[in-house]
Amino acid sequence: MKKTRIALFGSTGSIGRSALDVIRHLANRVKLVVIAAKRSVSEVCAQAQEFLPKIILLTDHEAANRARSMLDSRFKVLNDLASFDTLLAAEDIDIVIMAMSGTTGLSVVLKALRLGKKVALATKELIVAYGEVIMQVSRRYGGVILPVDSELAAIHQCLDGKPRSTLRRVILTASGGPFWRRGLPQNAQVADVLQHPTWRMGKKITVDSATLMNKGLEIIETVRLFGVQQEQVEVVIHPESIVHSMVEFNDGSVLAHLSNPDMRLPIQYCLVYPERLPSLVSPLFFKHKKLRLDFYPVNRTQFPCLQLAVRALKTDTGATCVLNAANEAAVAAFLGNKIAFGTIPIIIEKTLSRYLKQKKGTGRFTVTQLMKTEKWAREYSQMIIGENRNE
Q1: How far is 11 from 372, CA to CA, in rounded Å?
Q2: pLDDT in tens, 208-221
């Protein structure tokens, strides 16, 4: 059997490390041929020595030069995404796992889809900011997008092969993060925000989970990836993080996806779909262990980021691009102790409102237009952050 050849972008992040666990587990089925990161030279070189990929990509030029000096001639070290775009067509790559943070990996995703490849997409910001363009390219060229996100992967499994006309609702479950009972504390400390009760994730997504922006982004993802209406998507708080999402059909029946909270399961699902293989994830025990499943409505007044995401989605793809850029800027400022935790939604709201006041016309956006919009949103957000800096 020919092994599935994988390119992993973001190999040193939490998703990337989980993906490497899965690749080890599936060593008789898959082969890692590309690893990419930003600048974690020592970790990337250790990964290279273990998995022996053909290509190493470090987007930081100095880091790439250091890696060249540390690795032997078996490895080809690249230092920018553009050079990899050219190689993507020539290399025998079956699946691209995109787990780089933010929208850095846009060109790689678009290139892979134009070549009809499968993209296991862990970077929800790409679908939020550029989703309409990405989905157009996917449909036109036959590229396949499989969501790595646990909630979106759950929806994919519940909907797999079922006509969209039979769908009534999609119910996204949210852990709620550490503050779901009381809403956002204005002056929560970084360490407190990062204490997620059930998941161990990167800092940015953990902050998004605490503000519920993560769930707002997933509403946008769900609409774009599965072609449903925004009104069909609901969010409920589910603190145990066992039910990852649910789908209700016209006859009133509800299908739910349950598993222990472990990102290695949706990653493996994407790599071997449509097969089902034994995984590294421990099974749920119903016989000898009491299993509690609680569900609570979301108090949207306490979590304004969720409403901001819906507002942007109802406007246009430029607005969702602005939402994403403003949120990234605000979260980075909070993690850098430049603004208070409760200021995050204020930064986003002011940037989004400014966009809505100055936007002209409607219609489809090109990648170039969205890039300009994203750049403007980051710069405008930074201006507001400067006005709201912690003293």
Answers
A1: 28
A2: 999 999 999 999 99
